[in-house]
Amino acid sequence: MYQFIKDLENQFKIDNKLSKKIKDSFEKVQPYWQKINDITYMNQMKILKAFQKNNASDFHLNGSTGYGYGDMGREVLEYIWADIFQAEKALVRPQIVSGTHAISLCLFGVLRPHDEFISISGIPYDTLQKVIGSGEPGTLSELNIIHKSIDLKENGDFNFELIEKAINDKTKMVCIQRSRGYSWRPSLAIEQIAEVIKFVKKINPNIVCFVDNCYGEFVEIMEPTQIGADLVAGSLIKNPGGGITPRGGYIVGRKELVYAASCRLTAPGIAGEVGSALDFNRLAYQGLFLAPLITEQALKGAIFAAQLLSDLGYSVSPQPYELRTDIIQAIKLGSPQKMRLFCQGIQKASPLDAHVTPQESLLPGYKDPVIMAGGTFIQGSSIELSADGPLREPYIVYLQGGLSVAHVIIGLVSALKKMDLIYDE
Ligand SMILES: *Cc1c(COP(=O)(O)O)cnc(C)c1O
Asked: How far is Cα 82 from Cα 86, in angstroms, rounded to an integer?
């Protein structure tokens, strides 16, 4: 390992002080890395068993064309997902274009005019605010669907009191965002989610408990559907695609709810019976199989980043020693220039497009300009090493992904080298 640090020293011409910090961080993170191995092994076992139980075969990897009627590969893939998530039904499709789309399908599938739904983990992810609505055609608010949100408490726990007060006869759904998204708040542990679902169901068992599971898959040994969530959605170019699945999203949960979402994806009556896979099946099977390992690599990289950056004096969240429930590492850099340089350094260490300089820009669905680094094999994939964030106070960069922990370390050193430019100001 120390030969690798020497190599970093030479390649990046870093000084002794930084090289010493890198070495110290290595040593400090070993026990935290150790804990993650166990989770990887258990999730790998769970996934392997689901493949075997469903007699996954070579011919399932071939995709259908046209309508895609009777696509066995698609059907078996969805049985496997349902088993892994211990859900009644799964919809796993290349036709779901992103995580936002998957979540949106759940909301439009379940909610009807004058229904209320409550985000109980604070204001939801940037792109979902547009779905809820203002201005664009076809939003939830245009359909007179009412949204409320309740912030988490200062300590990161659910605000049970306010949740109880907010629930009324019209409440159809509560939404929980497992990951921090672009915010400083901690991600939510499965145990916390289990507790709040129980609480909501006690008030009214008919309320649909929905979880935005983006970035959370295979970080713990349980998934939200295993602890009472009715409906769960996420993206295949994050954890569960294993860096291999080139596009798509998933929805798992109770049969009638997943069915309602699939009627939204295609058309009522057609639902999930159509949708050809083309080249999707093999990549979706293989990506899912690799997902625990790749998630582990990303997590180890995030822990290392937390250790190193906090040793260098930056505020980080989560701390290197804390329980993780998503793969995101937030680092408070404190200035827009540092954010740019950090992202430039990550970009410069990418396998693709290392020669381009990331610049902030306005993206569809986001309010503030966003800067994104990631020379990824799959466009926008954030299970691959990437760093991004909206350029707004207090200038937090969100680091996530990494197909190998070595790459994350190289990327970090590259980022620190870039930031060195203004280090001593
Ligand atoms: C990434 C993400 C989304 C949206 O996913 P896209 O695939 O980028 O549309 C939603 N919620 C959370 C918490 C996310 O991290």
From this structure: 6
